């Protein structure tokens, strides 16, 4: 049996088995769940080789599955994050209702993502895309909060995107007579100009929704924050990358083949830039960690879209690197929020404070991920940002540099807010009972945090596969070529010449650590956070001195003009308007038999009158 | 042997930066006093203060992050210093100067303040957090014109390396402050915020916020912050000199150039009251931004 | 060949007369025998279909009269396919409603199954017959049983709905009768193949009038836009399984008659395009109306109308692919919509108003039923990997091959609307908190109903995962419909062989 | 290095010199004395030339300047602030009120003798003392620091129980973190 | 103005029988005694009906000799420009007053101060914690029979050296030839 089939059968069977076992025994269910995630991952990495394909036919269409170099990059994200978040989920979701449903849905969406990466034809691509959509939708509404608002919004946007994609797919089919992605790519330059324009736009609407591109992003904040955090880690970390995956294929394989593609890419890049700025500003304004991370995800995806839109080899390298990094650090952050939610019951910055000494490992993981997110060296986020800036400057996108830089600087605000809001600040007696999350939740976070550190120091580990993937898309090998632009990347990759920097950092750190702290360590004593110099006042136990409300009020006041215009009310208004129209249409059915009879007669008369036009006689 | 020279050179650079930064601080205090019609402390007062702070025999901490905060700041300052070409030919201080990349530097410079902000947050003092939020907000304000100026230079000379910019100036023979004046103006206006003198000193307003982020730090912490702040000031000044004033061939010229450019924020600050945060941000997004855009246009036309 | 197609019509009609008599022996026979008959019909038509797919169409001549004159039954892949769906569904409906609520307590309970049987028999008759007058008769049979079933609950609303249906039905009947009269006066024949063969001889003015009358008459049965006012009321007020039977059987018969008329009977060029237009209008108006419904069954009814509109759109594309897609959609609809009606009527079983807003949190207390409803919803909006996706995909590819991008866009937009209203319900069932005050009291479905729903659910999954299971039949059926000349030849040649 | 005691002595001398030259003052401005601080610090008298400079929080301060009367209520805060300061630290009592109660000698809520509650290194006499006397007080303090005689903090540490007893007499409801340097 | 005042007094007297007018020469001032139980009702009446919407002050006088404490609610009407003094007296020991901080929120501050400084209890007064005095366990310090000097000598340390201090006032009297009033002698040294 083909290994590719086996992987999907395991996924599918595991999903069903997990659901059914969920009705019987919790432990068995958990074990099956983890096994269903881990076994295909192992099979995938050991048994499936790149370029291996299987062909079959379904409903008269020839389908083909097989992984490419390019898909392999995303498979790292999907399976890595899927397994780690799965381990996390087992501990995080313990004691919730309906877990069999949750787990089988989780497996289904991992399967769908893998399916997307495996699909070499548009039909199975679309099928897996839709499975991914509805399984993630079921996760969004899993908690039962704001279902009709948030859930439906997500699904409408996903459906519009998917249907746009479907339209492109059937149009392609009618034009080429084949459903293969390759044949679309080959035939694309020969299309009419209108089709050359229409097909990428339709596809990009589909991918843009999933990757939360600016005018299509309004679902993101609600959905990311309403899904269980164990899933949101995958949702934001991996699932949104499917949009990027498709977008890169469209941009690189289709649009770039025609001379007008240049403008197309510009638009995409600018949309990405606007997404980044808007996402960041809204993230700064949030008081809820889930919402903050959700908007932050939108912003981060914005950077990636900028890279994709610019489309030079370095930019593409940056985008893919950032996609991997985003999976790592945003997954960790969502997991951390989930851990905090599990331990304290809330995710609001105005309520939880001072967890650093209670949940040190969660803090450590969050800290490393935040540093990566903010793009501060030496963690991985910087490498991506750096390559993005270099590529933007190198390809003459000067204003875009400023836009991206603004967003990236403003990102420090919410990064700090996240760390401060949960971990720093006053340690309140209200949260004195809080303990570190269970090991099964902490370990995946720590692993991923260390992962983002390792990728920051040894970016070659992931840059090499990315390079291979890009070559498969038709880029020339970038190995070493761009890395020489700065000493940072001089001979980076396998060998590390960052040693001087690292040594310096470590040496200075140790020096000052000893100098400042250890020398008089005995005389440095710990005092509680209630013992602060607040004008000689002694804060009583119930007095919360933490500063958490209106955290960035002055900044938000300054950027108010930028945030005044939202697109969400526009959509809502459109929806309301449509409902009003539908309500008007509904009145055609009066419920009166006489009216219906009248309709019939009028219909007959109309047919008689317009018989020439209708029937051509 | 080469390694030893490197290490010695690095240590020498740090000491130089420390001494110069501290002395500049003292001189600024003196100048401020003279403007106030006072006598003012001696120019070495900062050294005394630092030494006294270091000599404090007790210290407290509210958690490990508070201890790490100043250390982060110090690391960031020293590492950033390592990447700055102090002298044009690098003769005396051959650190990592010749590989420096502006974008890398920009992010490296944020590392310390963010670590410091975490340390300040750990103390649990609300004033610290308020100060940090103000500082970060203000940073978003001035980074925009500053980056615009840098990008304009990058466009003009088609390089993102500091040494590249210095070489370009050496070849053309004119300093960038003349060859791309708008970028210089934008950068200088951004510098006002970067040095956090009045009117942009809302971050640590002593009477309003009880010195803001550092309000829980005394003794050694404050010493570390003070010294790394001095090193950082030197780093920023040298960076300005390098990219706008063609760098310096020897120490005397370096001191002259850095001091002259240092006087801009100092003198502007002495006679200014204090902006609120959003006023500061709006200030930076007014004329500095305008000059930044001009610089970009200028750079992309020529 | 296991039996004659005639038995498909004769046995249920015979049984219908016998059942009341047998009911005197043992009351339960009234309910069991129709089931047996329906099961027999299902098996017979399935095996006939299998035979026909191998060996070509069966043309059964009644009473020995030659085709142009006498009545004949045509069991071709197309008609056989429809007949199989109908008989299968008839059986499933019987299985489901075998112990459905109230049918014991109410006096007409024995009539329920008889009427159901008649409904199926009549519909199969409409599909199989090769004679337009005979078709008219079957339409009347279906109509009468349908009126009776609509009014089965004997309430004010049920009576009103039934009366509306009756009103429209009589309009339909008169229109059809006039049309048949015109054709007979012009061509002197009632045999479809003969009419189709000679239609070019007809005076164009009469032809158009006849066709318009046909469209009006059959359109009422096929629920096309302005003529479908009866449908929502009838679906809502009839018992749940009967709603399923309407959606799965009666309407299919109407669609068949309409399509047969357009594709085979008349040679009017614009008629196919007319199907497209009218289908599109029906689709859009019905789906948008469905969005604003508050009652579950009414919503399902409008959705059903919309699906029929989509079927007409698919037919209206006019190519073999389009017909294939339309048939595929008819098949899927015949499976999915009954599932929705079945599970939906259990979900709102104890409710008086049958409001959607009363369904909060039922998923926890009625896991099976709710799961079937969700499965049906997922399938009908065309989410892969369920059955509905493949039909939607085939419609879209068929349209795309004809370059009808605007129509694709419209269909997809309407699909979004469809998603909204189905998912609103699914959300309520699963993700809202059960509320003792506002929610419906849960009601456990009986085992026969669960089996009926499970059969349909499994079919949805099977077609979803392996569409090739049915595409072969569909291809043959669509070829069969498309190829008018062959139909004429087949039928008329039987007549000639008999003569000789 | 050779002789540990000697080297410690040298270090002490240098450190004392530095401490003397850099005095960061936390002015606890409860009473009327607070108004004398601005002229002391600004152009007319310019205390900064002596290295005297304001500190914003007790953590950074060397000298606690108690400018005027202390009520039972404010005494609690002053003790709190004093204990938050880091060694070496000094207290200057400023004005008559801190010495013997001054004009509030018979108030029901004002303590009269500060040095029973906190170790005062230098008292500045006057009601109010003018900036000149304030500077003189700082001069005296510098002298004491330079000679290594300003050891109020050590005294406080050694006689903590006595101080605590006095403090607790005034403040019966004693909720404060332990002082355990 | 006189007319207006007369009207007001008429109003109040008809509504509150025990209101007793206290004559006062100032023309834009109205002054009368009432029973302490009437205080909330009369103030509400004045605020809602007569337009005395502003509570200027609540004054307190310790009539040690009478064994009573007098509270004076001073309210003001911005339209009529008349100040109304509503006086009441309570006994010194175990005195309980009706609370009016639901009529004017700011009365809460006065009442809490009176509670601490004069030992008057207010029914249902919010704010249980200490207001001005922290950890006070002596008698209410503002009462006239509280000997503050003796208390201070008991409680606080006393630095010797003030015993021979001269009373400044004696020197002043000598110089100007004035007499120190008898009541002030108690406080002289």
Helix content of chain E: 25-40%
Q: Segments of chain A where pLDDT lies below 50 for 5+ residues?
A: 489-497
How many separate structural domains of chain E?
2
Mean pLDDT of chain A: 84
Strand content of chain E: 15-25%
Cα(first) to Cα(last) distance of chain A is: 61 Å
CATH architecture of the largest domain in chain E: 2-Layer Sandwich
Q: What oligomerization state is this entry in?
A: heteropentamer
Order of helices and strands of chain E: HEEHEEEEHEHHH
- The number of helical segments of chain A is 24
Side-by-side strand order of the widest sheet of chain E:
1-2-5-4-3
Largest sheet of chain E: 5 strands, mixed
Q: Report the count of strand segments of chain E.
A: 7
Protein architecture, described:
The complex is a heteropentamer of chains A (617), B (302), C (500), D (181) and E (189). Chain B has one domain. Chain B has 13 helices and one strand. Chain B has helices at 2-35, 45-54, 64-82, 102-122, 126-157, 162-172, 176-179, 181-194, 206-209, 219-244, 251-270, 277-284, 287-301; one strand at 59-61. The N and C termini of chain B lie far apart (46 Å). The model of chain B has no long low-confidence stretch (mean pLDDT 83). Chain C is mainly alpha-helical and 500 residues long. Chain C has a two-stranded antiparallel ribbon with strand order 1-2. Chain E has 189 residues and is an alpha/beta fold. A five-stranded mixed β-sheet of chain E has the order 1-2-5-4-3, with helices on one face. The longest helix of chain E has 14 residues, at 2-15. In chain E, 17% of the residues are buried. The model of chain E has no long low-confidence stretch (mean pLDDT 81). Chains A and B meet through helix 14, helix 15, helix 16, helix 19 and strand 3 of A and strand 1, helix 3, helix 4, helix 5 and helix 10 of B.
What descriptive keywords fit this protein?
heteropentamer; A: 617 residues; mainly alpha; two-stranded antiparallel ribbon; 24 helices; 70% helix; globular; C: 500 residues; 20 helices; 76% helix
Write the layout of secondary structure elements.
The complex is a heteropentamer of chains A (617), B (302), C (500), D (181) and E (189).
Chain A: H1 3-22, H2 26-47, E1 53-58, E2 61-66, H3 69-92, H4 99-118, H5 122-140, H6 147-176, H7 181-187, H8 193-210, H9 220-226, H10 229-254, H11 261-285, H12 289-310, H13 313-344, H14 360-374, H15 380-394, H16 398-422, H17 439-457, H18 460-472, H19 499-518, E3 524-526, H20 553-558, H21 560-563, H22 568-586, H23 593-609, H24 611-615
Antiparallel strand pairs in A: 1-2
Helix pairs in contact in A: 1-2, 1-4, 2-3, 2-4, 3-4, 3-10, 3-13, 3-17, 3-18, 4-5, 4-10, 5-6, 6-8, 8-10, 9-12, 10-12, 10-13, 11-12, 11-16, 12-13, 12-15, 12-16, 13-14, 13-15, 13-17, 13-18, 14-16, 14-17, 15-17
Chain B: H1 2-35, H2 45-54, E1 59-61, H3 64-82, H4 102-122, H5 126-157, H6 162-172, H7 176-179, H8 181-194, H9 206-209, H10 219-244, H11 251-270, H12 277-284, H13 287-301
Helix pairs in contact in B: 1-10, 1-11, 2-10, 3-4, 3-10, 4-5, 5-8, 5-12, 5-13, 6-10, 8-11, 8-13, 10-11
Chain C: H1 6-25, H2 29-55, E1 58-61, E2 72-75, H3 77-97, H4 109-128, H5 132-150, H6 156-187, H7 192-198, H8 204-222, H9 230-237, H10 240-265, H11 271-291, H12 296-317, H13 320-347, H14 362-365, H15 367-380, H16 387-401, H17 405-431, H18 447-465, H19 468-482, H20 484-499
Antiparallel strand pairs in C: 1-2
Helix pairs in contact in C: 1-2, 1-4, 2-3, 2-4, 3-4, 3-10, 3-13, 3-18, 3-19, 4-5, 4-10, 5-6, 5-10, 6-8, 6-9, 7-20, 8-10, 9-10, 9-12, 10-12, 10-13, 11-12, 11-17, 12-13, 12-17, 13-15, 13-16, 13-18, 13-19, 15-17, 15-18, 16-18
